[in-house]
Write a structure and sequence with these properties.
By secondary structure, the protein is mainly alpha-helical. The protein has five helices and no strands.
Length: 110
């Protein structure tokens, strides 16, 4: 099994535990959109309590990658992802967080 496949299996297990329904192909697209960050211990997760980190997700993923704009309730999208994963959950996998943001926005990376 490749390292990427191992990460996808980890994300699926994490989402199953939280009872989050997902489309595997869309999850894979979100993981690919994360690039090499999913392989680094620090960058593979999102610090939901760090405003700078959430601003980075807003700018680099929601706006640049998905093509959303400020009028798309970006704060609401981020809040949705935080609520679904659990604000107190320290393991907010970046790919899962991106998936939930995409789900809320109704737009997934190509």
């Amino acid at each position: 099994m490749s390292k990427f496949d191992e990460k996808i299996a980890l994300y699926k297990t994490s989402m199953d535990k939280k009872e989050i329904k997902y489309d595997e192909q869309k999850l894979i697209a979100c993981a690919k959109a994360c690039g090499p960050s999913i392989y680094n211990n620090d960058s593979s997760t999102v610090a939901g309590s760090d405003k700078k980190e959430l601003e980075t997700v807003r700018n680099n993923y929601l706006i640049k990658k998905l093509g959303l704009s400020e009028s798309d309730d970006l704060d609401g999208i981020l809040e949705y992802a935080l609520d679904k994963i659990g604000k107190s959950n320290p393991k907010k996998h970046r790919a899962v967080f991106y998936y939930l943001c995409s789900e809320k926005a109704g737009k997934f990376p190509a």
